[in-house]
Amino acid sequence: MIRVMFLCTANSCRSQMAEGLARELGKGLIEARSAGVFAVDVQPRSIAVMQEIGMDISQQWPKTMDEKLMRTMDYVITLCDRGAESCPTLPGTVRRMHWSIKDPVGFIGTEEEIMNDFRRARDEIRERMELLLHTIRRQMPARR
């Protein structure tokens, strides 16, 4: 199993969606975790847009960075600039990636416009997740 940590500012939206997508799309391949620089409740809109695509993240909870745990990961993926800046120095065995995904939490508009921005973030994360999974599968030794 490839161990992947998704890191963002509050572990309430983007990193939670990434964890849920990785668990579902990477079943049997990825062990997914998420954390934040600090932790606040998981955004209900994040839960709702994930349910729209058949994924339930309602049982996930916010967590703060654990440097010791992060050092055991194969990948640490930051989803925002603050997360990238706060990420500790990790050993060379941990691959760091940065996916700059605009935070939908601060979006202002009608409820439908806000939900559309959450969908945009979800879909951007999903696209990058699919590319990551493709890369991981290509790098794995052929099964006999």
Please explain how this structure is put together.
The protein has a single domain, classed as Rossmann fold (3-Layer(aba) Sandwich). Helix content is 42%, strand content 15%. The protein contains five helices and four strands, in the order βαβααβαβα. Strand 1 (2-8), helix 1 and strand 2 (30-36) form a beta-alpha-beta unit. It is globular, with a radius of gyration of 15 Å. It starts with a strand and ends in a 5-residue tail after the last helix.
Q: Provide the low-confidence segments as ranges.
A: none
Biggest sheet descriptor = 4 strands, parallel
Q: Provide the structure class.
A: alpha/beta
Give the overall silhouette.
globular
Please report the distance between the alpha carbons of the first and last residues. Answer: 17 Å
Mean pLDDT: 91
Counting structural domains, the number is: 1
Tell how many strands the DSSP assignment holds.
4
Number of helices: 5
Strand/helix succession = EHEHHEHEH
CATH architecture: 3-Layer(aba) Sandwich
CATH topology: Rossmann fold
Radius of gyration: 15 Å
CATH homologous group name: Response regulator
Strand order within the widest beta sheet: 2-1-3-4
